Amino acid sequence: MKSGIFFWIMRLAVAVILVQTLYFKFTASEESVYIFSALGIEPYGRIGTGIAELITAVLILIPRTSLFGAIMGCGIMVGAIFAHLFVLGIEVKNDGGTLFILALITFLCCITLVFKDRTKVMNLLN
After folding, report:
1. Whole-angstrom Cα distance, residue 32 to residue 110?
2. Domain ranges of the chain
3. 47-70 burial, b for 16+ CB within 10 Å, e for fewer?
4. 76 CB burial (10 A radius; 0-12, 13-18, 19+)
5. Per-residue pLDDT tens for 57-101?
6. Rounded CA separation 22/64 (Å)
7. What is the DSSP letter of 43?
8. Transmembrane ranges (predicted)?
9. How far apart are CA 48 and CA 43, in angstroms?
């Protein structure tokens, strides 16, 4: 029972982090435009990433689809982490590394959720 609550908290954490960033992506906030311009994919990358994150947040909250949401979240966050490490830097526009830390937290939650359902993942691959 306690582990069930723990995994729900992880799923909620991922969903909250992803959903709270959507406002900035969909309203073309200065920071979001800067990030995706630096990556050379503004505006389509910003909007596409926002849509992918919204789908991920919904999938991760539905028990039947949470594994797919966690896998999607891992992929999106690997992209975000690599963008920080190789293009943007840890700190973006004096955010103190907040976006990088949120990407790490989201990735760690998602990879933990995938690992929890590793037998389902293996069944998908067979």
Report:
1. 23
2. 2-125
3. bebbebbbbbbebbbeeeebbbbb
4. buried
5. 999 999 999 999 999 999 999 999 999 999 999 999 999 999 999
6. 24
7. T
8. 5-24, 44-62, 67-90, 96-115
9. 8
